[in-house]
Amino acid sequence: MAARVEDAGATLSVPDANGRWESVTLAYHLRPPYPDLSFARTDHGWTYWLPRPDVDRVEYLIECRDRAGDTTRTVDETNPRRVPGVFGQASVLEFLGYLVPYWLRWQAPTGERAAMSLPHGRGLRRDLPVELFSPDGLAEDEAAPLLLVHDGPEMDRFAALTHYCAAMVAAGVLRPHRVGLLEPRDRDAWYSASPAYARSLAHHAVPAILDSVPTIGRPVLAGASLGALAALHAEWTSPGTFAGLFLASGSFFQMRYDSHEQHVGRFFRISSAVERILDAPAAPSNIPIAMVCGTGEENWENNQAMAAALRRAGRPVDVVPFRDGHTWVGWRDALHPTLTGLLARLWDGSGEH
């Protein structure tokens, strides 16, 4: 029986006529309260009713355990909808109301790409690789605004970032701009509120790219998950480096909400840095900040807490919700209009505010 999606939820099934599996469970990442994730045994396999969470789409895998205790995690073979990711494919349920962004159908010229290596400075052992994307029609010596993006290659591959930028430029929604796709060679170390990474980015990498590429104003920095944390931390510790920040589903871990994340490498460095920002009486710079987060995310509460702290510190910001979990597609779907509005505000012809 194939996966069946209804307005109230979805029915999933796993064929198992020969009784190979001892148990079958659903594997997905949405914030509590979780329903029971165990499939029920039937005559010919296993079945599961998933009450609709507070999202419009769910990415999931199915975990099967045999009688020897060995576990296999796989996509749902009865569901043809798949989405790629860093760790492979996942199955997808799309509920009534989910809409693919209309800008994905817009014309998006290929543009030009060039690889660069930015100096790392003291404290890091590797230079910072970046792929520079320029839209069609922008000459090499023509000055233009710059958007820098943490996890750049992944944001491009899985969240259609340069398609978004090229489509917005081609449609006249955004002015021509370049995009620096920052590649994390050591993501867990660099993006976990690392002082060495923040210093290297602000004092070495950004000046180097501005010396190499004709740029109007300061760059805007965007990031998702740990990349959003690293973006906020970099601006907080080196205020004035960036013209604005786009923070998607930031991993703003704190013990109050995220004690279950203590297994994450450098959790206590992250939570300590977050607490310092939460307790700050004033923001060190007055740049605009835009935040988005999925309604189904475990990061929802810590993003709300961060937004409240930024407002107290003088940065008027709200968390704009998107109806998804902690996924690349969710971040793709949240680019417009939130990132679009931030960039249009900064790039209105004066360079930046």
Quick tags:
353 residues, eight-stranded mixed beta sheet, 25% strand, globular, alpha/beta, 9 helices, five-stranded antiparallel beta sheet
Assembly classification: single chain
Radius of gyration: 22 Å
Largest beta sheet: what is the strand line-up?
Answer: 10-11-13-12-14-15-16-17
Instruction: Name the helicity range.
Output: 25-40%
In round numbers, the mean pLDDT is 94
Q: Give the uncertain stretches in residue-range form.
A: none
Structural class, from secondary structure content? alpha/beta
The CA-CA distance between the termini, in Å, is 57 Å
Order of helices and strands: EEEEEEEEEEEEHHEHHEHEHHEHEH
* Anisotropy-based shape: globular
* Total E-strand runs: 17
Largest sheet: 8 strands, mixed
Report the sheet-strand fraction: 25-35%
Number of helices: 9
How would you portray this structure in words?
By secondary structure, the chain is of the alpha/beta class. It has 9 helices and 17 strands. The protein has helices spanning 152-159, 161-170, 187-190, 195-212, 226-237, 255-258, 267-279, 300-312, 328-346; strands at 4-6, 9-15, 21-27, 40-41, 45-51, 57-66, 71-74, 82-83, 90-94, 112-118, 128-134, 146-149, 178-182, 220-224, 244-248, 289-294, 319-322. The strands form 3 sheets. It has an 8-stranded mixed β-sheet with strand order 10-11-13-12-14-15-16-17, with helices on both faces. Strands 3, 6, 7, 8 and 9 form a 5-stranded antiparallel β-sheet that branches. A 4-stranded antiparallel β-sheet has the order 1-2-5-4, with no helix packed on it. A hairpin with a 6-residue loop joins strand 8 and strand 9. Helix 1 packs across helix 9, helix 4 crosses helix 5 and helix 7 runs parallel beside helix 8. The chain is globular and about 70 Å long. The N and C termini lie far apart (57 Å). The mean pLDDT is 94.
